[in-house]
Write a structure and sequence with these properties.
Elements lengths: L8 E2 L2 E2 L3 H6 L4 H6 L3 H11 L9 H12 L3 H10 L1 H8 L7 E10 L6 H6 L3 E9 L6 H4 L1 H12 L1
Parallel strand pairs: 3-4
Antiparallel strand pairs: 1-2
């Protein structure tokens, strides 16, 4: 399954609705977020954070300030908007998989083993790790655990 097959609403509750929201190129996302950056960042992070409070109010203020800077919100959204083109551009690479070791880290509260499953489409030597009790913000939620995963892989 691809990232675009995730349902926005499932039997388990809301799914990753934000991908479609970010892909809208009619200015809607920009107009909803602009002027509301701190609320946007705070509530968005909270929605996919398992260890509540791991991303601190100070972190939220810093991230929101970046979105207020000229071009940053647009650049953030354009990164997501490039995905359909990236999918087409990257498709040929499935035929010649990367041989080097690849570390694919997911979180049980965000993407889980999908990260490794997706990486295996492009690489032959994938080490998949799913961090338990974690949402999307793995480093903020489990800094020691993530550091150890990285060190184990790199040494």
């Amino acid at each position: 399954p691809g990232i675009y097959t995730f349902p926005a609403l499932s039997a388990d509750g809301p799914g990753p609705w934000h991908f479609g929201f970010f892909l809208l190129d009619n200015g809607f996302a920009e107009n909803v977020i602009a002027g509301n950056e701190e609320v946007w960042v705070d509530r968005f992070i909270d929605d996919i954070e398992v260890v509540k409070g791991a991303v601190t109010p100070r972190d939220i203020a810093v991230y929101a300030e970046y979105l207020r800077q000229p071009g940053h919100l647009r650049a953030t959204l354009e990164w997501f908007r490039s995905w359909p083109t990236d999918m087409v551009d990257n498709a040929p690479y499935k035929d010649a998989k990367l041989a080097m070791p690849v570390l694919a880290i997911g979180a049980d509260g965000s993407m889980g083993d999908f990260v490794a499953t997706n990486a295996r489409q492009y690489a032959a030597d994938v080490t998949g790790v799913v961090v338990e009790n974690s949402g999307h913000w793995i480093y903020e939620e489990h800094p020691e655990k993530l550091t150890q995963i990285l060190l184990d892989f790199l040494t």
